[in-house]
Amino acid sequence: MKINVVRLLGIGVVAVVLVVAVTGCGEKSESPGVGERTGAALDKAAAKTAIMATNVAEKTSEAGKNTAAATKDVTGQVLEKTGDALEKGGAAAEKTGTDMQK
Description:
about 100 residues; mainly alpha
């Protein structure tokens, strides 16, 4: 008799599980669930992050190019002034040499 009760309970549990499973796998509701809303929010946040990262990279690249151009200009000016100073120094040395020969 105990075996029949155990079998009957086992069959009842299996039947309840099947009913719950079939009911849960029914037609989807029109409104998105919590998981779907969370996934959509994560997708939106990831897209915004990618856009912001691209903007930052573009601005950084542009700033780097501007800095390089400014450095090139300043370096040219420094070299030009150094050349002028060397010419003046050379002229002064030459004049000193000429004065020493007199």
